[in-house]
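Why do we care about 3D structure at all? Because function follows from shape, and shape follows, mostly, from sequence. That is the central idea of this module. The next example makes it concrete: a single protein chain, its amino acid sequence, and then its structure expressed as tokens.
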Amino acid sequence: MEERIYEELTDRVKAVAENVEKVAVIREDVEKIKAELAETREAKSATEAQLEKMAADVAEYRAMLDSDLGKSGSDDFRNIFNQFVKAVYHRQKGLPMPAHLEKAAADYVTSTDATGGYLVPTLVGDQVQQMTLRSGQLWPFFNKVTIPAGVAVKMPYESTLASVAWRVAQGGAGTEIDPNVAWGADTLRPSWINGYAKVANEAMTAPGISIPDNIAMQLMGQIVRKIEYGVLLGDDSASAYPHDGLLVATGVNSQTALATPTLANVANFIGECIADHEGSGDTSENFLITTDAVAHVLKSAASATGANAWGDPVSGVPAQLFGYRLITSPHAISTTNRLLMSPLGKITVGWTGQFSVSFNESLGWASNETWMMVSTHADFGIGNPDLHHKAVVTALS
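And the structure:
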């Protein structure tokens, strides 16, 4: 009996010992796991702090980029523009879209103009225009308004100015303006203006090649120059649309011809212009406009006498002659050179505010080329023609 009890107690002691041993092992594992968890928590806290700092930096940088470049957050808008052009090509041709163009296609190739192609997204277009429009000489000074394509809008301009008087005393009667101001109107209906260029198909499909956007930007610059051509010369076909340019409308305001572009003759021209439109109000908008050939002669004469501040053509700062800003244009000529005085800020260009890009297969038949078309819609009005003047330069020397 006693022997059996002893054996049972021995078995129980062994069982308890085994359980205690297991518990000790488990406790060691728990302590080890607790230590590992503590290290993990510490590492996690450090990682979260780093991520928060990185997120704050990214948010700051993205806000800065969004402010300048819109939703893409990219500082390479030329690359975005290039991808946009290529995405249009692939979309219009029905070609499989490469991975590097998927974002451009998804984000930007979303709207189509009825007659112009795929609109360049504002995100990229604003930046591209800043580069493209440097090719314009007169464009930066025009009054530009945005008008839907083909929609007729009457743009008012002052035909005559009213006189304005101070009220003599508080409570006294107001003074009626005299004479009553008269207004004219230019009806602007932005019409399609476009240009074509051949592009090799390899350039349209090769990643990393930026030839297409370069050609597109050249076409945009040529469109701007064509609008300036219209403002100065009017429509070549002499049709009623678009409006007459300055050289046509100023026919009634022709000043004494310049036998040669000497400083004395230019001073006489300016005096005649001022006498004719002295009552036109603010004359600070007046520019002198002529050809490069005339400007070259004037610069030589003015530099010799210190009569000018010739500006910086590279950065776009106009030259000054007798205090007036001087701009050259190859279009300021009709059979012979012309000298014009014009308030460019009173000339209104109505346009859609966007360029578009598309491709035309019917213009070329070669298997390895595509015709790229860049277009916009524009019209112009010169306002009161009495404010614009011209003179013929009969000879350069």
